[in-house]
Amino acid sequence: MSDPNAPDPPRWRGEEQQVFDAVRAVVNWYTTQLAAEHRTPVPDETCMGELKAARVAAVWAARLKKLTPS
User: What is the percentage of the chain residues whose pLDDT exceeds 70?
Assistant: First the structure.
């Protein structure tokens, strides 16, 4: 049984979908960079830490955008 007080799921419109797609592309880029760095013979731990932090920041920025009224 669904909760009658639960908020409606987001309805993606054109601009919002573009933002979502852009964030997904950024997160994918960071993931690709992390994988490439991880495969090097001696991964740069500082670089990997920065890439991980930036990837997490991108995800949280997208979540915040969904929660904040326009």
Answer: 79
